[in-house]
Request: fold
Amino acid sequence: MGDIFLGLFAIVIGVAASYGLYWLLNFIISLLPERLRKKSDWLAFLTPAVVLVILVLIAPLFQTIGWSFMDDGAKNWVGLKNYIDLFTDQRFLQILLNNFLWVLVVPAITVVVGTAAAALSNQVGPKLESIFKSLIFMPMAVSFVAASTIWSYFYAYVPPGRPEVGVLNAVVRLLGFPPQPWLTIDQGHLNSFLLMAVIVWLQVGYAMVVISSGIKAVPEETIEAAQLDGANPWQIFASVILPQVWGTVMSVFVTVLILVMKIFDIVLAMTRGNFNTSVLAFEWYKQFFENSNVGPASAVVTVLVILIVPLMWLQIQTVRQQELLR
Amino acid sequence: MSSVTYEHVVKEFGTVRAVNDLSFHVEDKEFLVFVGPSGCGKTTALRLLAGLEEITSGQILIGDRVVNDVPPKDRDIAMVFQSYALYPHMSVYDNMAFSLKLRGTPKEEIKKRVMEAAEILGINELLERKPRQLSGGQRQRVAVGRAIVRNPKVFLFDEPLSNLDAKLRVQTRAEINKLHQRLQTTFIYVTHDQVEAMTMASRIAVINKGMLQQLDTPQVLYDTPANMFVAGFIGSPAMNFFPATIKRNGADLMVDTGTFAVKIPSSHVALYQSWVGKKVVFGIRPEDIFNPSFLPPAIHAESVPSKVDVIELMGNEIFLYMVAGSQNFVARVDPRTTYKVGDQVQVAFNMDKFHIFDPETELAVR
Reply:
């Protein structure tokens, strides 16, 4: 109860303080002579946001990049040593490969399944559609850690002789095979793929909803024109609907891609990076908070940033292109 | 090329009957126009033919083939939509080539046919462009081009000119007319604009409340409308209507509106004998009301006293909004007329061209 009040109190104070700040800036501006005022009022409203962004985003970024050239305690400069260590460490290369697998698999599957769900849900009539969509969208309401817990039960392994709690193993037993400790099997990166299933389950709903609204915005007449032009339902989807929602599909793809690049909580909650499932963000967490290796940890996260920046650029481009099409 | 037949076609949306027992036959190579006010069911009637809506009852034939259960893609019909419905992601060339590609037409043949169509429509320069880079008029041409490359049995047009500006509309109207002559194919064209209907159609189907009111050539519709709806809808400004009674005056029959009475010429008297003493609606078109100073020779003119309420100068003619007692009517008179607002004048009704309707059924008395 006390927490709620504290939260509400923080909201009220926060809003009041922002209001006060803007009022004050506006007041200061209004004291300036007319000519100066017109030139500088945008500055007054932009400054707080810019200061905030610099304080909490840009400054830490540069600090981290700086640390990545320092030793464990962030005391002495060590040049490129951290990076050389990383890229000569077999374990780190495995982590990079894991991250690459996540990026390769998750966005593609999420978008394909989401698009299929969106296209099919548009065919079943409004009543079934809303039920169907709610069911697929529901996992969106679950946090990553909670979802990981649910899926941990799904994959749970109990040594033979004790009552079964894992859904997957129950099915496996029913089919007459011995139960498996799924999350420890890294042959062919099986356990990494099992972790990916969690985020696909979480994100398909998002992909479906966004793409579905895109499909609904496709002008009905273009579909009718295609019917008259002699296209069958599959050709209509592939040649008329999909190209018109391609921008939306791409922006979902890139959004999921960036999310997956930074994947952390699922790995933490399900395997703690063991059994060859670690990824960049988890490695950073482990190095920084558990091993207190500030320099090497910063190098890991800098690598991650360098990999994400081009993706952000790609995302901005797709959004721009989408706007152009409208 | 093909004829089209509607047989007792009904379309219901829930409890609303959008198309009500529509029956008619469109000849091969005919240019038929569906005309009617918005929401009258004309577009629905067209979409039923295209297969974009399902028929509730009755049947539609293209040629001799009942198409009720034939999907749109197999009806061999092309349609130009009001919004043009161009594929926004395809170039003009691809928009026009799409249907041929789907049919597996050889590439060379596709190119030849698209080029031909582009030539006819004067859009050769635009083939590489995307629809969003085109003006409204250019898009409209591409939509027509997409329809003609296929050589369909029937062309459907759903208000294709309503998104164009007035000048372009007149120009495109003539072009669609030319296209019809050139292609020698059945055209079915939907519009709410009776001028479009009059200028383009070989026959016009006037539709109101889902029902066919009259189907005939533009001239017959204009001269002998079957009912008050057709009489009021075709022609601009619309026909004037006066509630009236047929009265006998010696050997003559008079139409008495209460404010004024006009004599029915002896040549028409026989037709209205049975209506003597009964209530009717008297109709006369604005151009059949004259300024007596500019009366054409040899017509049966009847004088009607009235007051000039509003004057609209058109240059080549003048519209007079007149008041006679409790009646208002419009006259379309010679531009040399010098009446002023408020003038009490005598206008001349040409009684060779009037219409009598039954107020109960609204049907013309013939």
